[in-house]
Specification:
177 residues, mainly alpha, 7 helices
Amino acid sequence: MQRINKIEAAKRQLDTAIIMFFEKKDPLAVHTLACAAYDMLRNLAGNKTSQKLQTIKDNTVISANQKKDWQQELNNPQNFLKHADKDPNGILDFFPEITQYFLSDACNLYRHITTDITNPMIIYTGWFFTKNPNFLNPGEKQTTYKKIAEKLDTNNYSLFLNSILQLNKAKNIPNAF
């Protein structure tokens, strides 16, 4: 028997989803784990503070009358992958790129809740902003990530995976992946 709390469960799901992402494992499995961790962390963040943390599902750019449709579109793949009662013959048009946004948000939520971050989350966040420096506010960080992106192949997933494994080895963290 394993006895774990919610934050530990979310951390393990998120770290495993990140490893699987860099291993280029099945995108549906990665998405399912990423969204499970994201939803748990989103709920925990809401319970921890009265200040609502903005996430992909809470995007303030989306108009109030479109928010329900926005959230439904984001939830469609996740719901399709875990429920078959309402649409046993359903078909999903899945865009795997959406998973990287859930992973990024989940890393941010975990850091917000715990003020900690794991090696997979550090490497993933670095990869994400190196791949997408324009998502950062203009300034020094954006410029730094753009310079890194010029020298680093963000499509070389094995580089990022090996970085996680090496960091874990250096800190004597057993790799459960």
